[in-house]
Amino acid sequence: MAPSTSEREGSGGAVRNPLFARLLVRLRRNEPPEHLEYRRELLRGLSGRVLDVGAGDGANFPHFPSSVTEVIAVEPEPFLRERARENAKHAAVPVNVVDALADRLPLEDATVDAAVVALVLCTVPDQAATLRELRRVIRAGGELRFFEHVLARDPTLARVQRVLERSGCWPLVAGGCHPARDTAAAITTAGFSIEACRRLSVKPCPLAFPVAPHILGTARNTP
Length: 223
What we know:
The protein is an alpha/beta fold. The chain has helices at 18-29, 33-43, 78-88, 127-137, 155-167, 169-173, 183-189; strands at residues 8-9, 14-15, 48-53, 68-74, 95-98, 112-118, 138-149, 193-201, 213-220.
């Protein structure tokens, strides 16, 4: 296995990506102010029991509002999960960090009020399976909050994204990230009703231009 690629292993389906995980933690230390504001906007107004899928090292934890009674934070990568457990100790709301995969969530049906995906649906191996799981565990009428980079509307950039994805070079160096996914369409296809969605251009560094197009919004788990 190349050091920067993701691999599922063991009965728990652990995702091991040691180099990228450490790079991600370093990048989080200098997260741009606009990224922090997008996270705050993503989580604003949430309440009750919330699922944070692909929680990483716990970047969302400081921004959950006090109306959230519990956060179940799913993170399969061991290094990131341990950092998340440390950061959970300082969160303003109760956070339970668990080892699980996004397409095999250890939750009963309709047991969370909302779920959050932040820069996660680009990386999961099976986006449709993950969204089916999210729809299963979110109660009827509950919310899916999303902040994801997506396929560009600009034809030239979209071609670049598709080339990087097909070549395998971007997923290799970026922890399994797929830069050319139409995530808004996938959310709708999974049965969610998108209530709000705005497009953003987010470039934390010049090398991130292939994943600059983002969406930020809310979808409803309609019966």
